[in-house]
Amino acid sequence: MPTVASFCDWLAQTPVSLLIQTVNWIIPAVQSVHILAVATVMASTVLLDLRLLGLAGTDQPISSVARRFLPWIWCAVLVLLASGSLLVMGEPRRDLLNPVFIAKMALLATTALMTVLFQLTLSRKLVAWDAAARSPGPALFAVVSLALWVAVLVCGRWIAYVAHG
Amino acid sequence: MLLSIAHWLQNTGVARFIAGSEWAFPTIETVHVLFLVMVVGSITVVDLRLLGLASAHRRISRVSADVLPLTWFSFAMALGSGLLLFSSRAVAYLADWPFRIKMALLLLAGLNMAAFHLFTYRSIRAWDEARRPPAAAKLAAALSLAFWAGVVVFGRWIGFTVQ
């Protein structure tokens, strides 16, 4: 029966993985790109959430702030998935057998789903949300999404410290 | 002199605690990463405005007033957590070349920002609403992006080289 461990071992023998394992600057370089994309997501999220909470950027409607930052969040998420995939390929057992990595992916999926729902709701309730300085729906999304992104970041850093394999 | 300060720092109670604990270093490091990405990400928002690449319809002073309090708060947190991390192995960090380059880039980022505020920003009234600010402002923004990206790259590198 195929297992995650045997998949890891297969992945570790692929040419891309072997290249990442042998060229020692690839992992720090890819991690640096990963962190710069994390910076884009976190700052965009915090600035959007502060607007949803009515704490910053209140001279602009929610729709403008959302249009300003949501595309950056999604682009950065694509960069994170690409760079993260390379890191997984380079050290499959370190990640795929790691409970913190699994938790990180679950949290990421949750926050991505929430953001999609937020965007769908935003386009329907735009007028009402823009008119109010602060309404409970957006404020709740702000708090939960920020907490989820912080949790993703915390898990990301702790992958390196939790035993694996 | 730096070396003797590093020796002293490394032997303080706090430093010894961080060095000896299983969880203290990763926890402080997580706080450091959280606020460091906030510094870099929020400064990028201002730099992109100065380059005319984002928020071009908003006043530059307005974007700065919105974002920079967050940047400064995050910088204070990143600096404090960074000092704690440094203290745990001060002598080794001081000898580490990516750490030295990171500190040099931080200094350059600070000088670039100081020069921008002391000279270029004086005439902000003339170009606050400009989609394309003057060349000096764009140069400061481009340098800022480069220096901060460098801080991230060499900061990450420290973890692979420090002995």
Structure description:
The complex is a heterodimer of chains A (165) and B (163). Chain A has helices spanning 4-11, 15-22, 26-52, 62-90, 92-96, 99-131, 136-158. By secondary structure, chain A is mainly alpha-helical. Chain A has one domain (4-161). Chain B is built from 8 helices and no strands. At the A-B interface, helix 3 and helix 7 of A face helix 3, helix 4 and helix 8 of B.
Observed structural traits:
heterodimer, A: 165 residues, mainly alpha, 7 helices, 81% helix, B: 163 residues
Largest sheet of chain A: none
Could you tell me the mean pLDDT of chain A? 92
Alpha-beta content class of chain A:
mainly alpha
Rounded radius of gyration of chain A (Å): 19 Å
User: In total, how many domains does the architecture of chain A comprise?
Assistant: 1
Instruction: List the total number of helices of chain A.
Output: 7
Query: Low-confidence parts of chain B lasting 5 or more residues at pLDDT below 50?
Result: none
Question: What amount of the residues of chain A lies in strands?
Answer: under 5%
**Unreliable runs of chain A, pLDDT <50, ≥5 residues?**
none
Count of individual beta strands of chain A: 0
What series of H and E elements makes up the topology of chain B? Answer: HHHHHHHH
Helix content of chain B: over 70%
Backbone CA Rg of chain B: 18 Å
Rough outline of chain B: elongated
What level of helicity do the residues of chain A show? over 70%
The end-to-end span of chain B amounts to 21 Å
What is the global morphology of chain A?
elongated
